[in-house]
Amino acid sequence: MNRYFTNNRIILFVFCALGCSISCHQPEDSQPPNILLIMTDQQPVSCVGAYGNDKIKTPNLDVLAAEGHLFRNFYIATFPCSPSRASILTGRYLHHHNVFTNNVMLDHKIPTMGNMLSEGGYHTGYFGKAHLGGSMYVGRSGGDGIDYLHPPGSPSDPVGNQIGPYWHHDRMVSDSGWITKKQDGGPGEDQSQLGFQLWKGGWKDYKNWLIDQGQDSFAMWAGNHDDLQSAPEGEHMYSLLGEAYHMANYFTGQTSEFIKQQNKDEPWAAVLSFFGPHLPVAPPPPWDTLFALEEITLPANFEDDLRTKPHRQKEISSSYFNGVWSRDQFKDYIRRYWGYCGYIDEQIGRIIRQLKDSGQYDNTLIIFTSDHGDMLTGHGMIFKLGSNGYEELFKVPAIIKLPGYGSGNQQHDQLVSSIDLLPTILETAGIPIPDSIDGQSMLPILNGSKQTFRKFIFSEIHSSNADGKTIICRDDHYKYVYHWLSNDVDEFYDLVTDPGELNNLYTQAAYSDQISRMQEAIIKWAQETNHHYATLIAQKASK
Q: Is 7 left (phi over 0), alpha (psi -120 to 50) or beta?
């Protein structure tokens, strides 16, 4: 008997004895599907052709959507990068995995996709960005070592054994929300973690690969998000690494090699996690000039005076670029972004072709998503800008190709959360879904048996400052952005009549009942999910 099913029976018995929920669909004599989770960093739905952008070039994702399922209302459960990735890989809300901001380490005792699949008989590998082991930029001399703040031509960075010291943030409780405390230690991106058996990260592993390729000068600088950009933000930039030495090429190659080495009689699971198109938006040539400026149209909500919005948005709207940008500068940002997404799409195509050529495509669950979006000039903003809850940041692409589920080219409008991915993966693999997971399997949507999935979507931001503590509630019509520790105005949008979120209806009496209904939903959610700050969250609504 296949080793997977022997192990799975044992695990099934143990989990059922503990009262875990389970739904298994794999016949006893069949091979469970391989699993490939592909994540990008900071890619909004407008940057995938299948979501309606007829200019951007993402042919491989478009074909994947045509052969599978596309979710139109898929939202991240928390923001920004580290918290969102923790929710995807654990199936938990922010207050249950405790990674409330970047550089907070995920507790190794919390089960992840890697742990559960490895224990369920899968050979597992992780390739690319995780950002759940503390700081990614160990060895940098300036603060967090944020790469895109280093101008081209700066002194080189250390490589190899000179990398260090490692550090992370601990989560500390305060009377006004969680705060951080810097601590020594943590794996960064440089050690196997999250329960995956094989690990390749974007710092030491990638630098050592560059050295092996004879590219010592690149290795002294590049890594993680550092694409070796040719110019500062605001000017046209591209990656000096070129296609051959770009980290997207490296991680795709490592994933391909992992798949090639697998025993086809046993299942494998891989995460391919790209660092792009996150800033610096510097794709390798020719992808930076794939689109002419004249081809780019600024979004309908580009012009927003932010008059009815929280004051903080006015303060931060230009915090990632200097001075007043021209319309051409914004258009150049978009064309570079589209080019970067196109380059990543080409890498995704390499893996899909490999799966098809090796006969594994039809028995591989493929999921594509992103950890969050980018403002991409919406409301006159770029980058992430974590004090708001705009669709550009929180609604991300989700495309699923699942063997045996539908004839393809299926699109779904149900409200779905990123915490729902892991239980979907587990049920597909025939592995029990622990009660500790907050998400629910999406298979009832995929097989057409469930037309309504979630009444509300809840997403959370929990920055250290008062203005950055926000819970977003969305139903099939409205969105309420509740800044629960700030005295600033909240936000309420009618997404049916105002999809660009230009008109904040929070102060309009005609919507008071709807606002109260969604306030009550947030408070109930915080209480029922045992949020540590449920009482504090309720205070502003009660005033």
A: alpha
- Residue pair 500/423 in contact (Cβ under 8 Å)? The answer is no
**Residue 175 DSSP symbol:** B
Please give the tally of structural domains in the chain.
1
DSSP character at residue 305:
-
Write the DSSP assignment of 192-253 as a string of letters.
Answer: --TT-SEEE-TTHHHHHHHHHTT-HHHHTT-BTTB--BSS-BTB---BTTTTTT-HHHHHHH
**Residue 488 domain flag:** no
Classify residue 158: in a domain, yes or no: yes
User: Tell me: the pLDDT tens digits for 364-380?
Assistant: 999 999 999 999 999 99
Strand 167-172 relative to strand 123-128, pairing: unpaired
The token pair that represents 342 in the structure block? 């196109």
Give the residue among 131, 123, 258, 120 at the shortest CA–CA distance from 187: 131
Q: What does the block give as tokens for 198?
A: 């094989």
Provide CB contacts within 8 A for 168, sequence distance 6+: 103, 104, 105, 133, 134, 135, 182, 183, 185, 186
The amino acid present at 255, given as its one-letter code, is T
Question: How far apart, in whole angstroms, are the C-alpha atoms of residue 275 and residue 227?
Answer: 9
Question: Do 136 and 189 contact (CB within 8 A), yes or no?
Answer: yes
The verdict on residue 543 lying in a domain is no
Provide block-wise average pLDDT over 10 residues at a time, the chain (543 residues).
Answer: 36 37 45 96 98 97 97 97 98 96 95 97 98 88 43 53 83 93 94 96 93 88 90 92 98 98 93 96 97 96 93 72 85 98 98 97 97 95 83 97 85 97 97 96 91 94 85 98 93 98 97 97 98 95 81
Q: Which amino acid is at 399?
A: I
Q: Which of 232, 375, 370 is nearest to 316 (CA)?
A: 375
Sign, Cα dihedral of 243, 247, 253, 256:
negative
Number of helical (H) and strand (E) elements in the chain, helices listed first = 15, 17
The confidence score (pLDDT) of residue 160 equals: 56
Q: State whether residue 266 is helix, strand or coil.
A: coil
CATH code at position 267: 3.40.720.10
pLDDT of residue 159: 57
Closest CA to 366 of 66, 53, 48: 66
Stated pTM of the model: 0.92
The verdict on residue 537 lying in a domain is no
Distance CA 224, CA 157 (A): 13
DSSP 11-36: HHHHHHHTT-B------TTSPPPEEE
Q: Tokens 């950009």, residue?
A: 229
User: Encoding tokens for residue 56?
Assistant: 């951007």
Q: Which range of residues forms the domain containing residue 42?
A: 3-25+33-454
